[in-house]
Design brief:
By secondary structure, the protein is α+β, with helices and mostly antiparallel strands. It contains 14 helices and 10 strands. Helix 5 packs antiparallel against helix 6 (108-121) and helix 7 (126-139) packs antiparallel against helix 8.
Length: 418
């Protein structure tokens, strides 16, 4: 059926109806627009006006309640937050705010209900899980809090460190944390945390899981762990970790062998500057670089330019895991030019934790051809780690010149008495 608007009266009636509906819509829209503008203010009277203009808006009530919490007025905040959750049951952050108000009011039943509703609405958002975890800890509900920390660690890297720190402080049980709280994705930051707190045994268990799951690990983190272990005289663990990291840290080419316990002795690989590869520490008056122009064992050698005073060490060294009471043969090649100064540079091998030398080579004086330098030494009964480096003898005296080293090799040649 079609309506006829031919008569003037009907046209005016229809027009009036449209005007009334449009005016009503515009009035509502204007009211809500004004309410929104008012709600953006942190002024209490403006927030109240916004709520009066749009009484069904849960967000305005939530904002007003949060403002009361900020003013430390939980009794004033609770009714507004309760009404906000009634209007919008599916806002987890509104339930969390209500839980805070209930906690401050000493209402554990109300707090628990609000926390449970927040998690029922949103059990995966890290920020909600983080806030819920801290509320649960305050209640003494440690196990429930730990579940929320796991949610955080599975979903938000920005909260990883505080979540790990809090979890360890509350429940420093490495086995329980690895099983129930720390996901594999957080193993590396967890390892870093434990090292920073000198928790050696716990860090070892984290490493065991990293290795057992064959989780890739950046060389930076591996070298940090190796540095920690060697500094704390955990030589056996350091050697094991280096071997296990062969694939997961892409260092298969940097493994010692029976044919040569020194890693990268011909400098054919890039220097990792850590672990059981070469370590370079800058020294005043010395410049160290790989050189493709002077070579013997591979496509590169190591060039050491010397020009300074107070030099005692060239700043290039390598740790090597050894057996006690065992004889070793060390060999190396060198070239030297324009050496000037009393004494000379020498190859030296020391126990890594004592200054007493186990081996010192002949002086590395001018040689236009590749020359051998080496010898034999026996490790003491308590030596498990040695350091191979290039030293200045006598230490501290001025020296100038150019030195190349290549083909460094260390092998076990026998045990004491054999």
């Amino acid at each position: 059926m079609q309506l006829s608007l031919r008569s003037p009266a009907k046209k005016w009636a229809a027009t009036a109806a449209i005007v009334v509906v449009t005016a009503g819509y515009c009035g509502v829209a204007a009211s809500r627009f004004l309410a929104d503008r008012l709600a953006q203010s942190n002024n209490e009277s403006s927030l109240r006006r916004a709520i009066r203009l749009d009484s069904g808006n849960a967000e305005y009530r939530y904002n007003f309640g949060v403002r009361q919490l900020a003013l430390q007025l939980p009794a004033n905040a609770a009714p507004w937050l309760e009404s906000a959750t009634r209007l919008n049951f599916h806002s987890a952050r509104q339930w969390i705010a209500l839980a805070v108000a209930k906690q401050l009011l000493g209402d554990p039943a109300g707090e628990n209900a609000a926390i449970n509703n927040a998690l029922a609405v949103d059990s995966h958002t890290p920020d909600i899980a983080w806030q819920a975890a801290n509320l649960l800890l305050a209640q003494g509900r440690t196990n429930d809090a730990m579940k929320q920390f796991r949610t955080v660690l599975e979903n938000d890297s920005s909260l990883t460190w505080p979540a790990i720190t809090t979890a360890w402080k509350i429940h420093p049980d490495i086995d329980s944390l690895l099983e129930n709280v720390i996901p594999p994705a957080a193993d590396i930051p967890f390892l870093q945390f434990l090292l920073s707190n000198k928790e050696t045994l716990a860090a070892g268990k984290v490493w065991n899981r990293i290795f057992s799951l064959q989780q890739p690990i950046g060389r930076r983190y591996l070298l940090e762990y190796e540095h920690y272990l060697l500094n704390h005289r955990e030589v056996a663990q350091a050697s094991l970790v280096w071997q296990q990291a062969s694939k997961i840290a892409d260092i298969a080419a940097y493994q010692p062998s029976a044919e040569n316990l020194l890693v990268n002795g011909d400098f054919s690989l890039d220097i990792l500057n850590g672990g059981f590869d070469w370590i370079h520490q800058p020294v005043g008056g010395i410049s160290v670089a790989l050189d493709a122009n002077e070579t013997h064992s591979s496509s590169r050698s190591l060039r050491i330019l010397l020009d300074g005073e107070g030099i005692s060490d060239a700043g290039i060294s390598q740790f090597v895991s050894v057996e006690p009471n065992t004889r070793y043969d060390f060999t190396a090649l060198y070239k030297a030019r324009e050496m000037d100064g009393a004494g000379a540079m020498q190859f030296a091998i020391h126990d890594a934790y004592r200054s007493t030398p186990l081996f010192v080579s002949e002086d590395l004086r001018d040689a236009d051809f590749w020359k051998n330098a080496g010898g034999t030494f026996t490790t003491p009964a308590d030596t498990h780690l040695v350091i191979v480096h290039v030293i200045r003898v006598p230490a501290g005296r001025p020296i100038r010149g150019k030195l190349w080293i290549d083909g460094l090799r260390l092998v076990q040649s026998g045990t004491e008495g054999k």
